[in-house]
Automatic annotation (TrEMBL):
Keyword Lyase listed: yes
MF (Gene Ontology): histidine ammonia-lyase activity
PROSITE patterns in UniProt: PAL_HISTIDASE
Pathway named in the protein's UniProt entry: Amino-acid degradation; L-histidine degradation into L-glutamate; N-formimidoyl-L-glutamate from L-histidine: step 1/3
GO cellular component: cytoplasm
Transport is among the record's keywords: no
Signal sequence region: none
Protein name: Histidine ammonia-lyase
PANTHER family hit by this protein: HISTIDINE AMMONIA-LYASE
Enzyme nomenclature, EC number: 4.3.1.3
Protein family according to the UniProt entry: Belongs to the PAL/histidase family.
Gene source species: Marihabitans asiaticum
SUPFAM superfamilies recorded: L-aspartase-like
Class in the EC hierarchy, top level: lyase
Length: 518
């Protein structure tokens, strides 16, 4: 985590995607507003009033899932909540990334602070302290069906509250939870009625990963426009098709934004000016991967904004079952079902795959002398002796194939659970895990296009690139080698360039020239 940013206060206004990123990725602190604390106390009074009721109340005096009809006597209820957390902490496989765990924890704290779950103030204060102290429970890759929430991941987090399970403190080696709590001056809690359910019953893991992906994809789609602009320039394509009046004939906002980016990136390009004369340039139309980029990148943007709309609604939600209503009832509901989040997670994996697919096609055009308009085969220094960027395209193609597999939607699957009580589930956690991998791969595919286009543009010398594309090339050159020449280890060129894409250096360099990209 980087240096903490401004404190995020829950209960004053809805969380945003950027708030989630600030806490999950950059270590921003979290506070809960006084009014929210009052709502928490009021909801707890409702739960306490039901504890002695002779009428069964789900999660208060009954078992869970298919055991919801089993009455639990008062003397066993602390054990009931403890057993719920232990039994649901059934994850397995590799550890989930720290930023995902922190996002999940933030979103659970947000719901607990809503006053709709009946959590005790003592328990919520401990959860908040874990987040602010950088104590991240060890959560595993497998265990959530995305319905009844992300049960196993949330249960592994809840274990830390009772001093069980393992955690990492600010990214350190795993330690026992009780040891980490003692080191931070914190004391485990004993869970009371309803608290176990409140801690595990939410779509927080799915939503956290969606928020992180939305943030990252917004940056990568701008980079996709930069990479495309460089490819159009280096392949002697035309920017005429990106004219605003042509784009307005199909009034999708994302398409207009992408085309505007491409016009800005290609503005004042000496390479483009070198073939503006229609008598000297015999090509009538560029290939689709160049000409249709605003339609594809724009469709991706519009899909991303739909996903952001869903995320915004979810960030205002209080997902638990049962819930304490505003008028003091305790009611069962189905708001824990992950379908709304799962669908858009799958949509974005499709977006990542298709944007990367178009990028790889532009990379491939640079390497084929039949289509690259005068550049050497594979942009090699000495074709035959040197292979140039031949295998970089193989790498991109392999990654695009992987993206197509990851784009197969998990949300269309369902395997019934809990003795058919939970007979339809969302599989949204799997969608989220696939999307995280997809976002990372998209960044790598775009990196290869950027490096390929940079070399292609260099081979157009003495013609100079546009100011904006030149700035992108300079940003890459600051961290890796982009100039043509004798073969070298390409992996050593790709990795630092990929980091420059991830950290925003490439986009920032272009924006220094053209202003903010859309």
């Amino acid at each position: 985590m980087g240096a903490p940013e401004a404190t995020i206060t829950l209960g004053e206004q809805p969380l945003t995607v950027e708030d989630v990123v600030a806490v999950a990725r950059h270590g921003a602190r979290v506070e809960i507003a006084d009014l929210a604390w009052e709502r928490v106390r009021q909801a707890r009074e409702v739960i306490d009033s039901l504890a002695e009721d002779t009428v069964a109340h789900y999660g208060v005096s009954t078992g869970f899932g298919a055991l919801a009809t089993t009455h639990i006597p008062h003397e066993k209820r602390a054990r009931l909540q403890r057993s719920l957390v232990r039994s649901h902490a059934a994850g397995t496989g590799p550890e989930v990334e720290d930023e995902v765990v922190r996002a999940l924890m933030l979103l659970r704290v947000k719901t607990l602070a809503s006053g709709r779950t009946g959590i005790r103030e003592e328990t919520l204060r401990l959860y908040l302290a874990l987040l602010n102290e950088g104590i991240s429970p060890v959560v595993h890759e497998f265990g959530s069906l995305g319905c009844s929430g992300d049960l196993a991941p949330l249960a592994h987090c809840a274990l830390a509250l009772i001093g069980e399970g393992r955690v990492r403190v600010r990214g350190g080696d795993p330690v026992e939870s009780r040891e980490a709590l003692e080191g931070a001056g914190l004391t485990p809690v004993e869970l009371h009625e309803k608290e176990g359910l409140a801690l595990v019953n939410g779509t927080d893991g799915m939503l956290g990963m969606l928020c992180l992906a939305i943030h990252d994809l917004r940056g990568l789609l701008a980079v996709a426009d930069v990479a495309c602009g460089m490819s159009v320039e280096g392949l002697l394509g035309t920017d005429d098709v990106f004219a605003a009046d042509l784009q307005e004939l199909r009034p999708h906002p994302g398409q207009a934004a992408s085309a505007a980016n491409l016009r800005a990136v290609l503005a004042d390009s000496p390479i483009r000016d070198s073939h503006r004369d229609p008598t000297a340039c015999t090509r009538v139309q560029d290939a689709y991967s160049l000409r249709c980029a605003p339609q594809v990148h724009g469709g991706a943007r519009d899909t991303l904004e739909h996903a952001a709309l869903v995320a915004g609604r979810e960030l205002q939600a209080a997902v638990d079952n049962p819930v304490v209503t505003l008028d003091g009832r305790v009611e069962s509901n189905g708001n824990f079902h992950g379908a709304p989040v799962a669908y858009v997670l799958d949509f974005l994996a499709i977006v990542a795959a298709d944007v990367a697919s178009m990028s790889e096609r532009r990379t491939d055009r640079f390497l084929d002398p039949a289509r690259n308009h005068g550049l050497p085969p594979f942009l090699a220094d000495d074709p035959g002796t040197d292979s140039g960027l031949m295998i970089a395209q193989y790498t991109a193609a392999g990654m695009v194939s992987e993206l197509k597999r990851l784009a197969s939607p998990a949300s269309v699957d369902s395997i019934p659970s809990s003795a058919m009580q939970e007979d339809h589930v969302s599989m949204g956690w799997a969608s989220a895990r696939a999307l995280r991998r997809s976002v990372d791969i998209l960044a790598r595919v775009l990196t290869i296009e950027l490096l390929t286009a940079a070399r292609g543009i260099a081979l157009r010398a003495p013609l100079r690139p546009a100011p904006a594309t030149g700035a992108a090339i300079d940003a890459l050159a600051a961290v890796t080698r982009v100039e043509p020449g004798e073969d070298r280890i390409l992996a050593h060129d790709i990795e630092p360039a990929y980091q420059a894409v991830l950290d925003g250096s490439v986009r920032a360099a272009v924006e220094q020239v053209v202003g903010g990209l859309r």
